[in-house]
Amino acid sequence: MNNKNQTFMSNVLIILIAQITVKLLGIIYRLVITNVSGFGDQGNGYYSAGYNIYTLLLAISSVGIPNAISKMTSAKNAVGDYKGAYKIYKNALLLFSIIGIAASSILFFAAAPIASGVIHMPNAKYVLMALAPSILFVCLSSVVRGYFAGMQEMRASSRSQILEQIFKCVLTVTIVLYMSKNTMFPNDPDLNAAYMAAGANLATTLATVLSTVYIFGFYFKRKNELGQKIKSTVIKEEKRSTLSMFKSILIISIPISLGSIISAVNRIVDTATITRGIEAAFASGIPAVFGNVAAIVNPTLEQLNDEAVRLAGILSKSDTLLNLPIAMNISFATVLVPSISAALAKGEKKEASKFVSYSFLISILIIFPCAAGFVALAKPIFNLLYPNVPYGYDLLQLSSIALIFIALNQTISGSLQGVGKVFAPATGLFMGCIVKLILNIILIRQPSIHIYGAPISSIACQMISFAYGFTILSRNISLKLSFKKYILKPLACSAVMGVFAFGIYKLSMVIVASNTISVAISIITSVILYFIMVFACGLLEKDEIEMIPMGNKIYSLAKKVHLVK
């Protein structure tokens, strides 16, 4: 059991490091291009709007692949049927090659009508066309990632993701900087921002191609080793047609994809309702909100559209920052699916329950302080990261509440998929998205609320999704979640940390008068304080600490300084 726990946490650590690296690189290049002359909030608006459409087609065609393939192959590998696992992989590769080609073609050739008719941003068509080819390559690489994840081998996925993000970071910054120095439309800033956003997303396509080449290289290097395993299979081969195998893969991948599809639709709905809502809210006059822009009386449709794009871009800056803690948490959701599936395939329900309960605890211990930190330091963080466009920090403070439920929903989703309730996460999210759509339509159209309606409705959406998913999960697996340990104590520790962070920042500003130094001091001291409180409050017991890689050493150190008994 201890070896299984260590394997589980080792895989979590591999994915965690990869996710943190990927998101940090993502933040870096988004910060750079946002502050580039000519890009700014306008370019961010086009970048995010186009990317949201791309994400929907990506979700339909590929997002469920890694979890679906890992779920199917882990169950086969757990009982020694390596030949059956390989057969699933081969058929999945063929199936999603066909789907990927179709999805890429649709996005490329339908870019103009989608940009104009769906998201109400005609110039976003260039972003969609630049992103279209990458869908095929994501489909192909996702199958390989899922196959290796089913063997509890997370290196293929983590390395390819890191390499992809390195390529994306370098190429995005290079292309955008080049385009800023060689302005194509000096007399049309809006069109110029759209072209720069398209150039940034062309970098995404190029990076995806390079990442796919790497992951297939990883597979071919292991082909002989995998071949020996396949030959060692003693279980009688199941005779099934290719179409029958396609059907089985889709039966599992479609429900898993549904949650991602609904999330992607939700983001598009956000973009569409923001665009139309802002136009309705400011029809009689655009106020001077977020920055040194002048108020406009009786604006034209073009001016309203430009303002909607700008406000959507400002909101997207919060999403960029929220992605880092979400990425830290997603490692548990990723590893939970094959781990729970393998445990249940062998009838080990107690072990599956332990994985879920522990993942919940770590998710809470990660997300609560992140949300508190964003609320406390939102303004200085925006001043640090977006010096040229430091607007919208209060949107980050609001979005931080939704962050808590987004992260917990990730853990719930991975757990539900592992126990076979693959439709439940999508059902809960769909219910939340309906409420979000209604609230968006009502709130964003109010001149006194405008863009703030989007994060408010997101909070409601994620809370509803969480309530539904947790109810279904608790009915299907035994969960020992003490309110005091899992909610009350972490909440208290995070609140104290948030107040401390704000106070230390203010004190540091008085002493050193440097925003950068003050933010750094505040974050470092607050993190140290939080970890001390976590151990002092007994939130992690000895066996829970020891599940962490190098847990024995961490426990020994904590014991030496009298933080644990």
The string of secondary-structure elements, in order, is HHHHHHHHHHHEEHHHHHHHHH
Q: Describe the oligomeric state of these chains in a short phrase.
A: single chain
Tell me what portion of residues adopts beta-strand conformation.
under 5%
Tell me, briefly, the overall form: globular
As for the number of domains, it is 2
**In which order are the strands of the major sheet placed?**
1-2
What's the gyration radius in Å? 24 Å
Q: What is the SS-derived class?
A: mainly alpha
Number of strands: 2
**Proportion of helical residues:** over 70%
Between the first and last Cα atoms, what is the distance in angstroms?
24 Å
Largest sheet: 2 strands, antiparallel
User: What is the overall number of helices?
Assistant: 20
Average of the residue pLDDT scores? 83
Describe this structure as you would to a colleague.
It is a single chain. The protein has 565 residues and is mostly helical. The protein folds into 2 domains: 2-481, no CATH class; 483-565, no CATH class. Helix content is 81%, strand content 1%. It contains 20 helices and 2 strands. The protein has a two-stranded antiparallel sheet with strand order 1-2. The longest helix is centred in the middle third of the chain and has 45 residues, at 301-345. The model has no long low-confidence stretch (mean pLDDT 83).
Question: Key terms for this structure?
Answer:
565 residues, mainly alpha, 2 domains, two-stranded antiparallel sheet, globular
